[in-house]
Design brief:
Helix content is 0%, strand content 48%. The protein is mostly beta strands and 126 residues long. The strands form two sheets. Strands 2, 4, 5, 6, 9, 10 and 11 form a seven-stranded mixed sheet that branches. It has a four-stranded antiparallel sheet with strand order 1-3-8-7, with no helix packed on it.
């Protein structure tokens, strides 16, 4: 069993930055593919960024160059650095774990994820 706890969300002005954290207990995160998703009101949950267990990052086109995913193995925590935030980035952000390590991870397929955190709210004002 794995438990994920997100934190770091908040209210920020457009152009600002936030760093989200996803702390895990139960298993070492460097053995799994990890990802951040977000869900805005009235919209489906969408893939934002992924980190393969090897350390290779992947990003949705909408956040490339602005967001960065990273991992601290000692703290068993995955981070999402959000820079140059826009009002359209407003959403609840969730982290998830893929325990099946495919050669080509299906990052955007929610059924590929075994565990989710409870989410953290990010609100970007214009």
């Amino acid at each position: 069993q794995v438990q994920l706890v997100e934190s770091g969300g908040g209210l920020v002005q457009a152009g600002g930055s936030l760093r989200l954290s996803c702390a895990a207990s139960g298993r070492p995160l460097n053995s799994y593919n990890m990802a951040w998703f977000r869900q805005a009101p009235g919209k489906e949950r969408e893939f934002v960024a992924g980190l393969k267990w090897t350390g290779i990052p992947y990003y949705a086109d909408s956040v490339k160059g602005r967001f960065a995913i990273s991992r601290d193995n000692a703290k068993n925590t995955v981070y999402l650095q959000l820079n140059s935030l826009k009002p359209e980035d407003t959403a609840v952000y969730y982290c998830g774990i893929q325990s099946r390590l495919r050669a080509l991870p299906a990052w955007a397929t929610m059924t590929e994820y075994d565990y989710w955190g409870q989410g953290t709210q990010v609100t970007v004002s214009s």
